[in-house]
Amino acid sequence: MSIKIAPFLPQLLRSLFKKPVTVKYPFEKEAVPQGFRGTVVFNPAKCIGCNICVNDCPAEAIDIIRVSETEKKFKMILHNDRCIHCAQCVDSCPTKTYHMDLEYEVAAFSRHALKIEYK
Amino acid sequence: MEYKVALGPQHPALHEAVSLRMTLDGEIIRDADLKLGYSHRGIEKLAEERSFIQNIYLTERICGICSHSHTTCFTQGVEQLMELVPARRGLYIRTLIAELERVHSHLLWLGVAGQEAGFESFFMYTWRDREVVLDILEWISGNRVHYAMNTFGGVRRDIDELQKKKILDNLGLLRQRTDYYLNLAASEPTFIGRLAGVGKLSKEQAIALCAVGPTLRASGVPMDVRKDDPYAVYDEIPFEVCTADSCDVLGRAVVRVKELIQSYNMIEFILQNLPEGPFKVKAPRKVKPNEVYSRYEAPRGENVHYIKSNGSDKPERLKVRAPTLANYPATIAMLKSGFIADIPLIFAAIDPCICCAERLVQLDNPRSGESQVLSFSQLRSMANAHYKKIDLTKKEAAWPF
């Protein structure tokens, strides 16, 4: 049985004169799309401490802690090692305290380094 | 003379952990037995401890390829429990993602089939073109694999005109490529020779063994949940149920290529007829006590979720039946009187997702080799006895960092 090469030919010729598609990653970076779900960003000024995000987070990655006894001030601790980047906190928050940035290089040598505190 | 040979759970010929025990006569398989439970993950138990909203993301992680299938199946079940009518635009977008997912799953499968048949260039071509679909999904949802598009009452993101145009532009490329594959596969005698006649499953066997998806349709049975019991907006979208009569791996490949073309048509129809209006409606947090059985046609076959609610914001029971589990009895029938060398091909032809399917129901005694089935009350008493032995002071232990 002989191999018919004809259907391959156009493909082979096209690939022969094409530039490689590989991006040399640490030196060149490809842009992520606009709606990309990167790292969670929290704005403490808007938080009312309703704890809906804490209850809705599927990965239990959010802690909301009251800072002052008298004033309604809160800080948020994001356990980015547990975060699954689903953006449910962005959807759940009634005061639009959260948004997702386009940061995707979040690797670290230890998981404590991934803990982010927003005051 | 007959030999007994064990294949797996870890074996280089298989992509996932399948445990096969075979009785061989030379190279021919006389009898085969499949053992489940190696990749058991306890997802159903975990679902009982999470709220309905958290469970959307848990069910998404049952499978990496059909992640949208599991969430849609779960979401539409819970919407029935909530007596909630989802937004029409939301349902259209949900169906759009489902069809895009079918395209990427079938392209992936074609590549796997090419690789198992020894046609490596085919594998490279299909996987390169699969990137186009994954990029489309990334533009729409923000991520390549776990789209997280579903929520109760609709979807979480809208589609704008620019995205619509981008999808339609790329569909042209995909159509062109699929035609090229058809031409390539049809003119390559070694590829057809390797697939034809392997893993025979007759129409009667396929029905008797409850096969689902392309495995069933390749045996000439036109069954598809999208036609038989339409969910979302499939009753408004024109499409054909693709079948093949050759009852072998070649037929399964043909069904998938035909379904690719149907999916392109459906994506075009959805984008041209996308209704205006809101893409989601507000959903209640708590669900009335009831139970529901939700069906969905995943790329691999019929996917079933059974959800029972008890009036709280958590499900009392979630039962997941992934399509691979329904295809196992048919796989055993296909393996019998086949060759050892055909095992990877036959397994690949059902597009197995082992981790999705494994729900532990049977236990083996390693010493005597006996297997036993435990009832729920026995399991419960075993669990109670186990927890009594545990040192409860550990419960107070804090996260050390």
Architecture overview:
- Chain A is α+β, with helices and mostly antiparallel strands and 119 residues long.
- Chain A has a single domain (31-118), classed as Alpha-Beta Plaits.
- Helix content of chain A is 15%, strand content 18%.
- Chain A has helices spanning 9-16, 52-56, 88-92, and strands at residues 40-42, 62-66, 74-79, 98-100, 115-118.
- In chain A, the strands form 2 sheets. Chain A has a 3-stranded antiparallel sheet with strand order 2-3-5, with no helix packed on it. Chain A has a two-stranded antiparallel sheet with strand order 1-4.
- Chain A is elongated and about 80 Å long.
- Chain A starts with 8 loop residues before the first helix and ends with a strand.
- The model of chain A has no long low-confidence stretch (mean pLDDT 88).
- By secondary structure, chain B is an alpha+beta fold.
- Chain B has a single domain, classed as Orthogonal Bundle (Cytochrome-c3 Hydrogenase, chain B), CATH 1.10.645.10.
- Chain B has a 3-stranded antiparallel sheet, with helices on one face. In chain B, strands 6-7-8 form a 3-stranded antiparallel sheet.
- In chain B, helix 4 (88-116) packs antiparallel against helix 5, helix 4 (88-116) packs antiparallel against helix 11 (249-272) and helix 6 packs antiparallel against helix 11 (249-272).
- Chain B is globular, with a radius of gyration of 22 Å.
- The A-B interface holds A 1, 3-4, 6-8, 11, 33, 35-37, 55-59, 84-88, 91-92, 100, 111-112, 115 and B 50-51, 53-58, 121, 125, 138-143, 146, 148, 151, 156-157, 180, 183-184, 187-190, 193, 401.
